[in-house]
Amino acid sequence: MTQKKLNGGTTVAGTMVLAHLAGIKVFATGGLGGVHRGAENSMDISADLTELGRTPVAIVSSGCKSFLDIPRTLEYLETQGVGVGTFADGREGTVDFPAFWTRDSGIPSPTLIEDESTAAAILSAQFSLPLSSGLLFANPIPSQHSIPKAQMDAIMAQAILDAEESGSTGSDNTPFILARIRELTRGQTVMANRALIEANVIRGTRVACELSRLEQARIGKPDG
Questions:
Q1: 224/216 Cα distance (integer angstroms)
Q2: Rounded to 10 degrees, what is the CA torsion of 13, 143, 96, 90?
């Protein structure tokens, strides 16, 4: 790609590297990669998780893709020393780690984050320590665009089965499953994608602004 001077996109892992090189401390994306179901046999684990363990950048995303193994993804992130929290988004008490198209995964989030200023304070504290790991701030899809968990569970089960029967593995697995889910939901996930990306960008921008205020206050410079 570089040699041919072509345009291309980057994964979350690649974006983290570029962001760190550019001095960007927080960015927003749709969903994080993770541990695939059956990874105990296939060893199919996204490089996004490994990069989070060695690059000091914070990511705002709607959790990881719903069809991934969320419990193992969270375990892997813990092993990598990555702090994980979910925005309360108006809720109190224990909240689920979001599952991309749905707010509910059935898996409690390791940490509850009240708001953007709290997230910025966590970021500031982490960056003040000699640590190389990043942070994951999970932002649930807006409730009006969330697809019911039971509906998504059934659709994902069918999509995963179809992928197995088609022999789609490795790098072909995720694109096949995403396309099949889009077909099975008749495009409902496309609209959900747009809503969650917009919400994540707004949330990530607010976190970045709050972090900038903290840093400006630390060095005694007024905002603006």
A1: 10
A2: 110
pLDDT tens digits, 73-103: 999 999 999 999 999 998 988 999 999 999 9
Closest-CA residue to 60 (of 173, 205, 175, 181):
205
This prediction has a pTM of 0.89
The CB density around residue 43, as the number of other CB atoms within 10 Å, is 9
Take residue 19 and report the two structure tokens written for it. Answer: 């962001």
Count CB neighbours of 56 within 10 A.
Answer: 18
Q: Which of 193, 212, 206 is nearest to 89 (CA)?
A: 206
Q: What is the pLDDT of residues 152-195, one digit of tens each?
A: 999 999 998 999 888 887 778 888 998 999 999 999 999 999 99
Runs of H (alpha helix) within the chain? 12-22, 39-42, 47-52, 70-79, 116-127, 149-166, 173-184, 188-218
Closest CA to 53 of 13, 25, 22: 13
Q: Does residue 73 contact residue 36 with C-beta atoms inside 8 Å? A: no
218 vs 221: CA distance, rounded Å: 8
Query: Under DSSP, is residue 92 helix (H, G, I), strand (E, B) or coil?
Result: coil
DSSP 106: S
Angle at 121 between CA 116 and CA 124, to 5 degrees: 125
* Phi, psi (rounded to 5 degrees) for 223: -60, 150
